[in-house]
Please model this.
Amino acid sequence: MNVVNGLYIRKCLAGCILIMIMQTPLPADEDTRLLVAGKIITLHSTELNENRTLLVYLPDNYEMMEEKKYPVLYLLDAENHFFHVTGIVQFLSSSWTMPQMIVVGLINVNRDRDFTPVWIPNSRLSGGADRFLDFLEKECFPAVESRYRTEPYRILAGHSLGGTLTVYAFLTRPYLFGGYIAVSPALGLPKNMLLPDIESHLSEKNRRNKYLYITLGNEPSYRPGIDRFTELLQDGSGDGVVWRFVSMPKYHHGTTPHLSVYHGLEFIFDGWQVPARIYAEGLDSLRAYYDALTERFGYTVKIPEQMIRRLGYETMAYDRETARIIFEEYVRLYPDSPKSHDSLGELYELEGKYLIAKKHYETAVKKSRLRPDGYEDLYMEHLQRIRDKLTSKLF
Amino acid sequence: MNVVNGLYIRKCLAGCILIMIMQTPLPADEDTRLLVAGKIITLHSTELNENRTLLVYLPDNYEMMEEKKYPVLYLLDAENHFFHVTGIVQFLSSSWTMPQMIVVGLINVNRDRDFTPVWIPNSRLSGGADRFLDFLEKECFPAVESRYRTEPYRILAGHSLGGTLTVYAFLTRPYLFGGYIAVSPALGLPKNMLLPDIESHLSEKNRRNKYLYITLGNEPSYRPGIDRFTELLQDGSGDGVVWRFVSMPKYHHGTTPHLSVYHGLEFIFDGWQVPARIYAEGLDSLRAYYDALTERFGYTVKIPEQMIRRLGYETMAYDRETARIIFEEYVRLYPDSPKSHDSLGELYELEGKYLIAKKHYETAVKKSRLRPDGYEDLYMEHLQRIRDKLTSKLF
Model:
């Protein structure tokens, strides 16, 4: 296998997903080749006056797609949840349920301190949620967003007290995240000490297009807090938030997290996969659909390259004029993709417009030299074919 | 963080789960620390006359627990499913839904060839399922089982044609695996060419304590094959198999795998977590419960160490005689655990039997020197205390 000693590379296993492989400098032994799930980075926080450890998962194609940007899922209690949640993200994005995404897992220093909004009597350290959110907003996000290619869309997921912090972030700083997954959150304590002022927080902020997913297992002591909160949401508080509460009676506090994150991401990205009906209606409907996704998520969501190319070729079989419009849109959306120029070239070649076809094939070849995609020979072949056709026309 | 250059070690992050960390020999840079999801090993197959690549996931505590053995989940189409399925295994075992488990993912060479029981007309290569199962039985299992510490309990999970192979293994070699998860399996083709002779296979073998979990999304073309098969099972064919078919109408062929494996493992290990009622009944009920699990899974399933220790200390508060029986059983089940001897020592100390208490504390100290568990100082302290008590008795 194609493994580089002492460096990690991305390699395609059987052409399906990309897995990072690295080799240690140990004596050659097949067991030293390892599958890598993520990186560990350390960040000094001035807000918290301590070093924080982040676990970072990058999507399979991160290195290859040099211009692509990704939303970021911030995950609390990463020591427990990073590995299984990155598995969910990899699966849901590879099956087109949601976009590929960066996951940043936060390793705890003191979760009681960081995840509680107010001081809890008899606790050693608590009430640091505002400082922790300051750290996220002023230090963690800038560090992640300067280091990695990110879209301005973030999700926060937390379990138990991490769920408390998630709901608190939703209440007090809804502009920080677009999606919130609060798993078995502790929202109520005797005298509502854990999350005070819910009502006034809820009435204050704009929550349009914010998605909130809350779950609870068979955890009776957590129920009153959840009930109080969801009643407020039910009554229309929260100004435009799209929310769902799911009861999981067969699960307990320790078993709710995995399925909650899975279904929470499905909920937040409901509609990410374009319905067959929209695709069948053609380019205008597709464009309107992706414009709506762009509006909803707050960053440009383009018609996927494979989709618009496929639509173009399918349309070319019976309506060249429409196919030309589709391929022109394809080139406009993906100007650096050799394939887009090659596709438009094929359309013009079919229409007998050899000179303009040649121009697009030339662009495809040029782009593919800058960014090889494995089809360089095909683009060259097309260019040669059109040159031959042009030559034979001359004589 | 405690990272060793050029070697990987297991490190406890915040005391919850263990993640393997390794560092490349590149210049010191925090980004070179990587989280490792598994190993890649290569195996030459004489049966198939080719090299096969296996991805191997070891449980978090594999290196620490030097004598512990683990069941093995064999996963087909590992290039697609290894990462997200190992996440499920890590989560479900860390939340006590099932045992910790080794996962062996098989990377494809030619899945059409390997996963189809009979030759499919017009296919280039097909009908190699028997040879592939020979490879598993005669080469892959011995290689895995000689290299890693395994219990004699295996599970097979496969999707699509991998589901076909999974059902075929269940039909023709039910002795190979204890649990079968067939996700969206292709069981029927026109004229039932894909899986012939289901009826005769089903009637032939002993399937006592075999667990079979089958799922299907919104995949109408797969339905007739599934219906035919489940009707046979419903009619009582399959001699003792415990099976379930789950329809997932909201999911399609590409989105069924993750939840199917999750719920399939829940199904296979239903009852793995001891009910509170059994625990409350005490040692005899617990012993009977774990004897039944041992019978069902075909390998010794012991009362978990934490559980029997906790039961002992809880019982010690009101019934020393019973607590002594529990701690003696604890020592019998975990003779190499320093904690078991320390616990029995505490019981005898409480009973005033200082000499025998001293003997057990000495064993705890000795065992903890062989296998440090972080409590060495505590065992020494107990030993010193009992020595002081014995000395003060003398004078």
